[in-house]
Amino acid sequence: MIALSAVLPSGEGQGLTIPGEHAPGPVPFSVVAAVVLLGLVAAPSAHADVIDTNFLSALNARGIDFVSGQSAVVAGHEVCDELDMGRPKNDVVSDVMNSSELDGYHAGFFVGVSVSAFCPRHHG
């Protein structure tokens, strides 16, 4: 089952809640090392950021808003996971409709744009 409770029709998203700031403390060396290592592998993620941004823009253009962009991207990848397991697209569209407030058109669009963005191997 695809968890799309974060994907809502236009005007019904509530956005993210940002927790309060905490007082800064000493930064452990392991955290600094991890940040440096992540910086070394961050370049390939730039392509993923473009794909995610285009995916979110396509949803937004059709009036599909979301509680958070990250939730929508995760749900888009779940569409691909379901298709990878052999589920028919129509069944995945039904799952999207049942786990969100999207109608058939918008659920189908969500599945289609998910395929285009994250798993083009399922086109057709």
Primary descriptors:
mainly alpha, DUF732 domain-containing protein, 124 residues, DUF732, single chain, 2 strands, 5% strand, two-stranded antiparallel sheet
List strands and helices in order, with pairings.
Blueprint: E1 7-9, H1 29-61, E2 64-66, H2 69-84, H3 89-98, H4 104-118
Antiparallel strand pairs: 1-2
Helix pairs in contact: 1-4, 2-4, 3-4
In short:
The protein has four helices and two strands. The protein has 124 residues and is mainly alpha-helical.
Structure explained in plain terms:
Pfam families: DUF732 (PF05305). Residues 52-120 form the DUF732 domain. This is DUF732 domain-containing protein. This protein is mainly alpha-helical and 124 residues long. The chain is globular and about 30 Å long. Mean pLDDT is 75; it is low at 5-43. It has four helices and two strands, in the order βαβααα. The chain is 60% helix and 5% strand. It has a domain at 70-124. A two-stranded antiparallel sheet has the order 1-2.
Determine the strand fraction and express it as a percent band.
under 5%
- Based on helices, strands and strand pairing, what is the structural class? mainly alpha
What's the multimeric state? single chain
Count of DSSP-assigned helices: 4
* Lateral arrangement of strands in the main beta sheet: 1-2
Average pLDDT, rounded to a whole number, is 75
Order of helices and strands: EHEHHH
Q: How large, in whole angstroms, is the Cα Rg?
A: 17 Å
Overall form? globular
Biggest sheet features: 2 strands, antiparallel
Protein name: DUF732 domain-containing protein
Organism: [Mycobacterium] nativiensis
Domain DUF732: 52-120
Pfam family, one: DUF732
